[in-house]
Specification:
It is a single chain. By secondary structure, the chain is an all-alpha fold. The longest helix has 33 residues. It is built from 14 helices and no strands. It has two domains: 143 residues, no CATH class; 191 residues, Methane Monooxygenase Hydroxylase, Chain G, domain 1 (Up-down Bundle), CATH 1.20.58.
Length: 376
């Protein structure tokens, strides 16, 4: 069963890769998947409005479909909601004012002023505010002369928006999980390289002081991008019934990203501790086994790299490598504790102890609740 699951997974990735290559080829000529979805949604909306509903204004359905198709299903639902709310608000306002005003400069001014002002006072989305203005103007201009125009605007907008959302969910729905996985690999590699780079603070000869702040700031930027990628992935799965099975996988990746965030916090603490040790005049004398501390830092950093790989590909090989690296890091950290008997300065004991504590916490993040095959 395990071999069959692996084989099916490989076939899925191969099929996805082939589809992606074809899509990229078409995109070079300007024919992206979103453009195709938009054209299909508009055409289908026109067909349904004309042949099934016998609508007098089918172009409103097509227009709604064009404006509703977005990158993710969640974005399409939000866009559709904004259009429908805006149109209903604009129609109601125009029908109300239409009893007292004929179309003209004054009535246009008042209906747009009141419509946008009320929407703004209710703190609605800017797109809803503009939609209220457009709908109120069109209904004021054409609704008084053509019976049923106002209701047709609402019905056909709902129709076009609904078809656009459905097409976006049915036809190759966006799956941003691979982007999250790549982001996790990049973030774990960046965290590991940052921690290894901090070893140079222990090698400082005193001629100039290093702080490691540049490296840590670069890590923070990478983690911010990782969180943004996760947010976009969550949006891509929202309101999408055909990617429900991916949500378990994404929830596990989200837990791993939180672990990487905790690791980043510990690395920032290590940086501050190492920077403080450079100002400690007796550190080199009281703690001569600096190479062992550097070894512990490097072993812990290597564990972060393996952790990222095991998260993305939780194979038996990667999980075994992670357990082995965690054990090595623990051993190197424990070896550093044996040198504490030579430390008499409370300041040195505090700084070295805080660094080892942060290293231990990083290792705990990588070993606790190791990734499993579940949810792949």
């Amino acid at each position: 069963m395990m071999k069959l699951a692996v084989t099916l997974q490989r076939l899925y990735h191969l099929e996805t890769k082939c589809l992606k290559n074809k899509t990229e080829t078409l995109a070079r000529f300007g024919f992206t998947l979103q453009i195709f979805k938009t054209a299909l949604a508009a055409a289908l909306s026109w067909f349904v409005a004309t042949n099934l509903l016998h609508a007098d204004y089918p172009y409103f359905a097509a227009l709604a479909a064009i404006l509703t198709v977005q990158v993710t299903v969640a974005d399409s639902v939000d866009k559709a909601t904004q259009r429908i709310i805006g149109i209903i608000g604009g129609v109601m306002l125009s029908m109300l004012l239409g009893h007292w005003f004929q179309i003209g400069s004054l009535s246009i001014f008042l209906v747009i002023l009141l419509g946008m002002g009320i929407a703004q006072a209710l703190r609605m989305n800017p797109q809803i505010i503009s939609q209220v203005a457009v709908s109120s103007f069109l209904v004021l201009a054409f609704g008084q002369d053509e019976e049923g125009y106002a209701y047709a605007r609402i019905l056909e907008t709902i129709l076009g928006s609904g078809i656009a959302v459905l097409i976006n969910a049915l036809i190759v729905p966006q799956n941003a999980i691979p982007d999250v996985e790549r982001s996790i690999i990049a973030s774990s590699a960046q965290a590991a390289s940052t921690l290894k780079a901090l070893n140079s603070l222990l090698q400082n000869n005193g001629r100039f002081r290093k702080t490691g702040r540049t490296e840590v700031n670069a890590l923070i930027r990478v983690m911010d991008k990782c969180h943004l990628t996760l947010k976009l992935a969550e949006q891509s799965l929202k309101y999408n019934p055909f990617l429900t099975h991916k949500r378990t996988r994404l929830s596990r990746l989200a837990v791993s990203i939180n672990k990487l965030e905790h690791i980043t916090v510990q690395i920032r603490g290590i940086r501050r501790g190492l920077a403080d040790l450079q100002l400690n005049a007796v550190f080199q004398e009281e703690y001569p086994n600096i190479p062992q501390l550097q070894k512990a830092v490097s072993a812990t950093a290597e564990g972060i790299t393996v952790f990222g790989e095991a998260i993305v590909v939780p194979s038996d090989r990667n999980l075994a490598a992670l357990r082995k690296q965690v054990q090595l890091a623990r051993e190197d950290q424990a070896q550093c504790l044996t040198d504490f008997k030579n430390i008499h300065s409370a300041e040195t004991l505090r700084d070295v102890g805080s660094i080892l504590t942060d290293l231990s916490r990083i290792t705990s993040e990588t070993e606790r609740e190791n990734p499993t095959r579940e949810g792949m």
